[in-house]
Specification:
Blueprint: H1 2-18, E1 26-30, H2 34-45, E2 49-55, E3 58-66, H3 68-77, E4 89-90, H4 91-97, E5 105-108, H5 117-125, E6 130-132, H6 148-156, E7 158-160, H7 162-165, H8 168-177, H9 187-200
Parallel strand pairs: 1-2, 1-5, 5-6, 6-7
Antiparallel strand pairs: 2-3, 3-4
Length: about 200
């Protein structure tokens, strides 16, 4: 939960700092595991419409966007880390449609090195503003941190890198090891510390 929260929280702070109403934004989610589904849940809580989800075995395309209740149902209905829905389309069909459907927010939260330059270009041409990295290395570059696809995307839109967006568990460990937090173990304190760290970064 804390990692997906951080990925969504990074987007919320991005719009607070640089401008834009998050409640008017749409998001595409890649991967419906612990990080992607939780990020979608928090984004929906902030008012973002989840218009597309692509997972290993299929996807969902919803131009109107799933709101919080719809995302909660998808979150609770998943089978382990698998997307489950009566409306699910095949991976092949989702992979053809999702990159061009239009969204301001992209959450790559599946395995690393999946997003091609063509997929990124399609999203950029269709309103993309910010990428919040749930995957450590989202783009299909050979380089570990910053290859040509990442550089191409970084020149066009804002990338919130994994060491900021995906820092939730590391921040939790840091919070619990900090002597001044001795005995403080509430979820609220841990989530607030994560949020403040992401905001400052």
């Amino acid at each position: 939960m804390i990692t997906g929260f951080g990925v969504a929280e990074a987007v919320r702070h991005y719009y607070q700092i640089w401008g834009g109403d998050i409640q008017e934004k749409r998001a595409i989610i890649q991967g419906w595991g612990n990080v992607g589904s939780t990020a979608a849940l928090y984004l929906a809580k902030y008012g973002v419409k989840i218009v597309g989800i692509i997972d290993r075995e299929g996807g969902l395309i919803n131009p109107e966007g799933y709101e919080l209740d719809g995302v909660k149902k998808l979150f609770h209905d998943k089978d382990g880390n698998k997307l489950v829905s009566d409306d699910m389309i095949s991976f092949e069909e989702a992979n053809k449609k999702i990159w061009e459907m239009g969204a301001e927010i992209f959450i790559p939260a599946a395995a690393s090195r999946l997003v091609s330059k063509e997929q990124a270009s399609s999203m950029i041409e269709n309103d993309l503003e910010v990428v919040s990295c749930g995957a450590n290395v989202p783009f299909s570059d050979e380089e570990i941190f910053y290859g040509p696809i990442a550089e191409f995307v970084d020149r066009k839109v804002s990338i919130l890198p994994d060491f900021i967006a995906n820092c939730g568990m590391a921040r939790t460990f840091a919070f619990l090891m900090d002597p001044k937090n001795d005995g403080v173990l509430t979820d609220e304190d841990i989530f607030n510390d994560c949020s403040q760290t992401i905001s400052a970064a």
